[in-house]
Amino acid sequence: METAVKLTDSNTPLSTEELRKINAYWRAANYLSVGQIYLMDNPLLKQPLTLEHIKPRLLGHWGTTPGLNFIYAHFNRVIKAQNLSVIYITGPGHGGPGLVANTWLEGTYSEIYPNVAQNEAGMKKLFKQFSFPGGIPSHCAPETPGSIHEGGELGYAVSHAYGAVFDNPDLIACCVVGDGEAETGPLATAWHSNKFLNPIHDGAVLPILHLNGYKIANPTVFARISHEELENLFIGYGYKPYFVEGSDPEVMHQQMAATIDIVISEIKTIQREARSNGAAARPRWPMIILRTPKGWTGPKEVDGEKTEDYWRSHQVPFAEMTTKPEHIKLLEQWMKHYKPEELFDDDGVLVQELTELAPKGVYRMGANPHANGGILLKNLKMPDFRNYAVDVSKPGSVLGESTRVMGYLLRDVMQHNKDTRNFRVMGPDETKSNRLAALFEVTGRSWMAEILPEDDHLAADGRVMEILSEHTCQGWLEGYLLTGRHGFFSCYEAFIHIIDSMFNQHAKWLKVSKEIPWRQPIASLNYLLTSHVWRQDHNGFSHQDPGFIDHVVNKKADIIRVYLPPDANTLLYITDKCLRSRDFINVIVAGKQPQPQWLDMDAAIKHATAGVGIWAWASNDQETEPDVVMACAGDVPTLETLAAVGLLHQHVPDLKIRVINVVNLMTLQPQEEHPHGLSDKDFDSLFTTDKPIIFAYHGYPWLIHRLTYRRTNHKNLHVRGYKEEGTTSTPFDMVVLNDLDRFHLVADVIDRVPKLSRTGAYVKQFIRDKLIEHREYITTYGKDMPEITNWKWPGA
Amino acid sequence: METAVKLTDSNTPLSTEELRKINAYWRAANYLSVGQIYLMDNPLLKQPLTLEHIKPRLLGHWGTTPGLNFIYAHFNRVIKAQNLSVIYITGPGHGGPGLVANTWLEGTYSEIYPNVAQNEAGMKKLFKQFSFPGGIPSHCAPETPGSIHEGGELGYAVSHAYGAVFDNPDLIACCVVGDGEAETGPLATAWHSNKFLNPIHDGAVLPILHLNGYKIANPTVFARISHEELENLFIGYGYKPYFVEGSDPEVMHQQMAATIDIVISEIKTIQREARSNGAAARPRWPMIILRTPKGWTGPKEVDGEKTEDYWRSHQVPFAEMTTKPEHIKLLEQWMKHYKPEELFDDDGVLVQELTELAPKGVYRMGANPHANGGILLKNLKMPDFRNYAVDVSKPGSVLGESTRVMGYLLRDVMQHNKDTRNFRVMGPDETKSNRLAALFEVTGRSWMAEILPEDDHLAADGRVMEILSEHTCQGWLEGYLLTGRHGFFSCYEAFIHIIDSMFNQHAKWLKVSKEIPWRQPIASLNYLLTSHVWRQDHNGFSHQDPGFIDHVVNKKADIIRVYLPPDANTLLYITDKCLRSRDFINVIVAGKQPQPQWLDMDAAIKHATAGVGIWAWASNDQETEPDVVMACAGDVPTLETLAAVGLLHQHVPDLKIRVINVVNLMTLQPQEEHPHGLSDKDFDSLFTTDKPIIFAYHGYPWLIHRLTYRRTNHKNLHVRGYKEEGTTSTPFDMVVLNDLDRFHLVADVIDRVPKLSRTGAYVKQFIRDKLIEHREYITTYGKDMPEITNWKWPGA
Fold it and tell me: Given A189, A538, A700, which is nearest B131 (Cβ)?
């Protein structure tokens, strides 16, 4: 068995001079990091340090920062030596001060933020702004140059890193993983991403597991298992781990330099061999396990208590400056031991011999264009979505599987952009189940593990990414989009909640990015939620949850879009729109089962462009005000509404019905709340100001109330939707169990339209009989009554 | 290095007769599994099989089932031989037919469901009910005897198993993990649970990684990495893996029997040694890697396409019975090759020699009481929560940290129940940060990895469980509760979204369990969400999300409870109430920072019992109708509301204000929607029918609208809350950025109360000045103005 590697002390690639300089650079970054956490004035410590120079609220995380600075310095060295393109993924995002310090040292920070210049005045601003009102956050954030990864929640560093290097053959993602983050589930499975990375057309991830031993108040699991277990674990994950462990800077610099030289050389060898012989076998990629003290170079003890190499270094190692004046002295000693006078000249400018250590231009990690992906973003070459139109001569006259039709469009998007390699489709083993299998006509499933002869469309260069981890799919896609490419994620509706929190973080990233002038727009994150709540009759209750929409609409209106196309042609239009959009999160909910098709392509474009509209062909209120408005959003609710309309036409033909279909859910919100919101005037003219509205909705009914409570006619709005009822049954029974079926909708109309008070009783008896018949039929035969499944809209 | 184990063929513990019988038992389970998927009549195949005997909709998952049946049969053997207490956790929950078949064979199924008797008529019902309307789901579910784990979402088998065996020293959880599930993040980190399992007072988990090679449409990662990597990975995770691999039943039965004998013996040895010498060192626990063909013993080929040992076996291996009559023949051959006539007598009763293979009574895995934990549940011994009361002589007169006070109560709950070992507290490294550190006065943090001298309250028998994985905390707690114990989960509010989907599954489990008479009530799942949105000023935007409440209230009203105690004494009362409750999910949101305390204990009990009420001492409408209602829910909104009331009293003393505080959020819903909902009459008398209501709410404001849109005075309701604004700033600035601060609330009142139209202009100018002063102060000094932080309620 191949074992892990630890270099001997004799491997010393740095000359004495180089060692001195790299250590000085590291000291400079550490000095600037401590300064950011503590100081608001006197940045070069020219005067004796006093309380007035120190921030009144001390915030930030020191513990992980010196390690991050150490890695940064060593990557500067190898980038410069070999002209590498590297982005730095800071898993321990709380180490924000380190990344800010380094990008300031290399010059990118001041280029982007000229008011924070590379001089004493700039250094003062750099210090003061950190974790200060009106300043910058304590984590790596959109504000941080060179970052595509916000620290904070933890768990996504490795999947982001892989997403970034897919289809970027010359890019290396230096991905630092904290040993706290390593305990999270999403991170624990993301290591397996190496089974999906192709050394020919993808770049490389160099994971650096940074063991500094402690979380907020506990040791970490990874720091307290044996070296043997640690080594086995990462060999088991498919890596070749190199250990760099210690605390003596001189020894550690040599070890780190030697190790990085070796791993970069291994990466290049792997890539060269794969690219020259074209054989994409899965190599054992190198990784580094770096063990350093938490709060390395910080105070060993504070008030007699162990601090360096302990959890007390996690955030601010000591505070209480007002009550303990000796702490001010301690801070001054700590900062001075980095010897700022050797590092910066009198104007606060980094001395020349250190300036030279950083790479230049876009080689600087803070300036790598992949970390501001919008600069590199190319529009997708889009086929005309009209070419895939389902021929609908008459509403309801044909059946179609919406997502299968969408699959044809996605297939050709994939084909048109194959050469530019900037489009991927993600899904947790569900691409085929979700009827998007047309993609496999032009590409395979990405797979670098073993392939057997009987395998189905597995391919080393496949562009459909399937792993049974929604977290990894989401992380890959975010990394891919943030580095300027395009993608699509299809998922079972219920299980997209698995990534609720990742969605939050991405939505927040987009919101802040939009406020930062130098961040260029990126492609939207597009979800297709299918295998949705109404067709989980075979899987049952545990697979039913339409609440992701509720979760999404809590985020800023200028970020999120929710579409519920009722048929294939509207889905085609919406898909095209989403793939062309920027800086949004688009949620599309559409079924995969055969369903009646309603709109021909011209009508679909018109309808979906408006986002909401009257379906005149299903309404009979043309000459007059309606007696009732029947609204619907979602494919199954649309079918049930139209079926209910059919029953009503048949039984109470003089009832005037207006049918409204909603594709773009955000149209329901007030105009002031969402850019797509209807004006009150338009809303009133559609939904009337005083007629009953029976609204059949795909998800939890109260969401419709939450969107419309300010509308004039809200008091007459009655919403049906999913109310957590359901089990293993038939498709139609699912809607019956939630009172969303045609029969209940008819009853709802009768209960609310005064003119039906007399004729209604008869119709309600008919409905009761039908529901009893339905119940008897399904429990006897196990399937829906033929008249339900073969139902046609009466107008068809 | 200790390497993995694969037994040689010479290790054959089963006699020929035993081998024949165990194989026959397995055939019986397989026969019954296929029967459930396909048949609705002719269960013993006494007549030639025809279309009428076959269900019209074929649902269910065959692929994993024969493997599950194989394991079950072998556990029956070892349980019987050694009188073990074992529960069976079915990670591949889609293998529902297997568990139903086995519990029917052992008799538990018919005891619980007498209409599904152990005879031909019962077998017919057993078959028909499966995945049939009105029948049972296709997964393991609450309906399944012996199960605490619903299949479906995947990811939680291992954490559930560990949760089940904590504090159950004699229990073994046989935990089958599918190789699909093994790709999920939560599962990938849950393997590390062995660092928290104490062999002295906990039971054992025997993980069985079942490699059957395929997911829905793809191979699995774990089946396509090298044997060497697989072995290393699990050694790295701290296990000693035993491999059982093959497809020949005779060989496989011997290997499995020999392996199980060895691993059970190893488990017993580990436990005996630890328990006799009292030294709780972390052992290398055994595990099994079982590699069998997917759809083992099913049809090799269907229509010329590979089926056994391939993804085509995942669900129903073949269907199209109407159009392909040869499929009926194939099904009959398949079922008959199990030779049902040797397994069941003419009445469908399992033959005597096979009946004897199953354990008896509670030793049957379907009847293990731990899997119906409510039977074993003992009430917690509760100290009187009044003993921890904060002395509040006058509202607002003292500061207190609510969660710290709660920590004293939790400490004593822990202490009182230490001997019964049925209470644990979970949290992702945040117990101390969340100010619950009093717990460490009586117990430690559970830790079985390496302990260093400087470590802080780590202990092998610690009862506070901390791992930086919300998924694992949640999974452990669910397993612990489902087996009849009590617990508590404290978490940062924003990051509880990580387990949104796990919450869904547990809520659904509870909903269904309540409808099953033989499932006994279990202790509620209690969340404390602290470090909440309003005090993330130091962490910033990425740590701000109060939306878990929105997520929770989408679930069934009889399952969920949401509490927002405004101070320590109400929190004490609510905590007591939650710890005594059953079958709920209780969400408590409370801050950890010093805040004014409002209610003495008597007032707190009265207020929190009602859940909502007027705070007369803060109101001045006693003699009359108010001009405005100022409502609040949550600790920070309560403070801001009272501060606004103070300002209003000062500036417009003749304004009549009614202050309402909401502790129990569900009181706002209509009575028909939630058992805690106020009647319309009560709501109207509190909130008036026509006065403006300014509602300061902890979370997203629209949730209040969604809960109250049917109330009479909803049109006058104006809600302030979190609207996704925030950054690194000061605590007070966080509320300012979201318009929830005292100044904006005052402005809201002025804008809505007609009688203030004249005096209001002056007050609004005052407010504008204050907000400018605030902005200048914080950007200069980096902290809140003293008058904000030192603010006292004017009545105090």
Answer: A538
Q: Do B183 and A555 touch (CB under 8 A)?
A: no
Whether residue A470 is predicted with pLDDT greater than 60 in this model: the reply is yes
Q: Which helix (H) or strand (E) holds A140?
A: none
**CB neighbour list of residue B754: distance below 8 Å, 6 or more residues apart:** none
Report residue A599 as tokens.
């709109």
Minimum distance, in Å, between the CA of residue A174 and any CA atom of chain B: 22
What is the rounded CA–CA span in Å between residue A562 and residue A586?
6
Burial of A649 (0-12, 13-18, 19+ CB in 10 A): middle
In A579-714 the beta strands, taken as DSSP E runs, fall at 585-589, 594-596, 612-614, 628-633, 657-662, 693-697
Q: Can you tell me the ipTM of this complex?
A: 0.96
- A612-789, what's its fold? Rossmann fold (3.40.50)
Task: Provide, as residue numbers in chain B, all residues whose Cβ is less than 8 Å from the Cβ of A216.
Answer: 429-430, 432-433
Question: For B131, which of A189, A542, A728 is closest by C-beta distance?
Answer: A728
Written as six digits, the tokens of B113 are 């469901």
B16-371 and B612-789 agree in CATH topology: yes
CA torsion sign, B702 to B708 to B710 to B716? negative
| Angle between the N-to-C axes of helices B16-38 and B96-106, in degrees from 0 to 180, rounded to the nearest 10 | 120
Question: Which tokens in the block code for residue A97?
Answer: 């001060």
All structural domains of chain A with their residue ranges: 16-371, 385-595, 612-789
Q: Is the pTM of this model over 0.90?
A: yes
User: CB neighbours (10 Å) of residue B676?
Assistant: 17
* Pairing assessment for the beta strands B171-178 and B204-211 based on DSSP bridges: parallel
CA of B262, closest CA in chain A: separation in Å? 23
Rounded to 10 degrees, what is the CA torsion of B195, B198, B199, B200?
A: 170
CATH architecture of the domain covering A385-595: 3-Layer(aba) Sandwich (3.40)
User: Which positions in chain A touch B231 (Cβ < 8 Å)?
Assistant: 236
CA pair distance A547, A570, nearest whole angstrom:
22
CA-based nearest residue to B205, from B181, B237, B172: B172
Dump pLDDT digits (tens) for B671-686.
999 999 999 999 999 9
Nearest to A346 by CA among A30, A122, A120: A120
Question: What CATH fold (topology level) applies to the domain A16-371?
Answer: Rossmann fold (3.40.50)
pLDDT 10s digits, B544-602 = 999 999 999 999 888 999 999 999 999 999 999 999 999 999 999 999 999 999 999 99
Contact partners, residue A755, CB within 8 Å, separation at least 6: A627, A655
User: In this model, does residue B790 exceed pLDDT 90?
Assistant: no
Catalogue the E-assigned strands of A318-410. 399-401
Please give the Cα distance from A120 to A117 (Å, whole number). 8
Segment holding B660, helix H or strand E: strand B657-662
Q: Which of B530, B597, B523 is nearest to B563 (CA)?
A: B530
Q: State the Cα–Cα distance between residues B248 and B228, nearest whole angstrom.
A: 23
Contact (CB, 8 A) for A179 and A209: yes
Q: Which of A158, A99, A153 is nearest to A479 (CA)?
A: A158
Q: For residue B266, give the nearest of B327, B206, B318 by alpha carbon.
A: B206
Suggest the residue from B314, B426, B505, B724 to mutate for an interface test with chain A (most A CBs closer than 10 A).
Answer: B724
Q: Is A135 close to B545, i.e. CB distance below 8 A? A: no
Q: Do A733 and B133 touch (CB under 8 A)?
A: yes
**What residue in B sits closest to A239 (Cα-Cα)?**
B229
The count of other CB atoms within 10 Å of the CB of residue A378 is 12
* CA trace torsion B297, B299, B305, B311 (10° rounding): -50
For residue A49, the 8-state DSSP code is P
